[in-house]
Design goal:
This protein is of the alpha/beta class and 168 residues long. Helix content is 30%, strand content 38%. The protein is globular, with a radius of gyration of 17 Å.
């Protein structure tokens, strides 16, 4: 099936609505169409909740970007913007295990140098020597004209979900 950017975003949002808290940015002047937030809390205790052995908080902030033609300069601009915006949303502290910041670029066409930069992207940060967890930057690209999905190394799981939702 051939998608437009709007139908691809709508299909992804419908898929994500079960697990994510979705914030739409329809009237925004940026290409960001939505941010999908996921939070998970796990804990283990003995006899009562007061005797907690451990707890772990995990979170993901996934951004859907609608860009008709992705160039290297556009990719770098929005990579940096989303990284900074996502870092403001992190809840770092005791019990924090990990956070993912995940932009998904949805475009009709992508220049090859932008694709190469996206695939080589590696942004990682640990907090207090990983005692307060870590943050990893997953990034994915959906090029609709070629029915192609690419990601950086950390984003392979995101690409797998995108392929399943859009092309199966």
């Amino acid at each position: 099936m051939q998608y437009t950017r709007e139908t691809a975003i709508a299909r992804l949002l419908k898929s994500y609505q079960t697990y994510y808290n979705i914030t739409l940015f329809e009237e925004d002047k940026t290409p960001i169409r939505a941010r999908c937030d996921y939070f998970e809390h796990s804990e283990k205790y003995v006899v009562s909740r007061k005797a907690e052995l451990w707890s772990a908080d995990c979170e993901e902030f996934l951004y859907l970007l609608d860009i008709p033609h992705l160039t290297l300069s556009l990719y770098e601009k929005w990579r940096d913007y989303i990284c900074e915006d996502g870092k403001k949303l992190l809840h770092i502290g005791p019990g924090h295990m990990y956070s993912f910041i995940t932009p998904v670029f949805i475009c009709d066409h992508c220049e090859e140098d932008a694709r190469k930069a996206l695939k080589k992207c590696r942004i990682y940060k640990s907090f207090h020597f990983s005692l307060h967890g870590w943050m990893d930057y997953h990034v994915a690209l959906v090029e609709l004209s070629k029915n192609r999905i690419d990601s950086n190394r950390s984003g392979h799981s995101v690409a797998k979900v995108l392929k399943k939702v859009l092309y199966s």
